[in-house]
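note to self — DONT lose this again. spent like an hour looking for the file last time. sequence + predicted structure for the chain T wanted, 471 res
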Amino acid sequence: MIKSTPKRVGLAAAAIAICVAAWWWLRPPDGFLTGLVPLEGNRAVFTMRHNPNNGDARAWLGLLDASGEVAWSKELPALTYSVYAHHGLTVSDDQITIKVSDSNTFAQVLAFDLETGAERWQSPRIDFAESDASFMMPSVPGERPHTDGVQLIHGDADGSRNLLVARSAADGARLWEHAVDSGVRDLLFASDAVAYRADAAWTFLSRGSGEVVQQIHAYAAGCGAADQFVTWDDDQLITVDWSGPAFTVASKPLPSEGIPLYCGLRDGAAVFTVARRYSEIAERRFELTAVDQGTASVAWRLDLGPWEPSSIARSRDNDTPDAHPLRGSLTDFVPVLLGTHDNDGVKLAMLDLNKHRVDWESTPHAELLHFDVFRGPGAQYFLGDSGRIAAFDGKTGKLTAAIRLGHESTRAFHALGNQLWLFSMGWHRMDALPWARLDGATLEVLAAGNDAFRPRAITDEFSGWLGIAAQ
């Protein structure tokens, strides 16, 4: 029999303390997902954040492998804002580029090797001056921090203005910079140009040098395609040919009987979503107006009546202008949620831009107001809120599958290939993050990071839920 002695008891207590400390130090960190970028091969890049009740917040960047395990993770020197803007995180074939900021003192861009997580380079810090108000790195619709060898970030050394900075994706070297005295509202990219909207003007910069090539007066958001950019100002249609170095600008009268809200490009025409002018007696009406860019004449109109396009078909955390179904290069069929100012409910409709008509629409539902519509593979689309997702056929509007997402609200959806990714902001350890990968047609669960977040199939509840009326 071994007798206990104070020395043995002390050694045992010390060993236990060491084991507990080692476990505490080596255990996976806990927090919540703030971003998820699916990749080919069933992998995904994620960002994660930990906000303690006391102490500083922490953030991580990591890679999920094909089996759903964390292949690697890196703690970041400051927080990311990918929870609010997908453009804070960009992934190329072999590199991850991310923008971080602690809001009060500095901002920085970091690049990591996709396969190993090894740091490739970091930009110089942008240090903010002391201020009574914290400075958050601006998030601008359309910003792509890493694309075709160029990065654009924001924030001057004193935090008083924006500074567009182009960096080499290979090593982070500064290529050029351009100061903007006011807030940037939109950013659009072409092969040789960068365009941004600030105050009442659009400014066009050379992609290679950052020099100002053209500037036009226009309050409105514009739309850009491969070789053309279109915007409007009052009653003028403004077209910019940005396919070459000249950046030719043409201005013609806009034949619209209303107020353009936004526009897209299709078959040589600018398709405007227009709010018709109305009086207190006449009800407010909306329409799509296609204007031929060559003649500035109306090519066709689609009357939407009192129904205004109130929601956009997109990946939920992707707020780039091109993600709007009625902006950028338009597809043949565009799904939209339509609502009225009289709160008559919201309905899902499919716009056929070939035949200039509404192909089908659902019965108005008040709860549809809380849903998003986003694209899937081919003719597949998804309709989702924080707790449910339904897959539907874009040609017929028929619901093909539906799921309930368990006890946690879903933060974002991503359609990639024939699959749908989604994740929650629930608090979990890094080795049990709440994400799921689904078959895009059947919504069958293919993989999940946490069984508590595993979606459940819905069978009868959604069968006649939309009440599609064929046109």
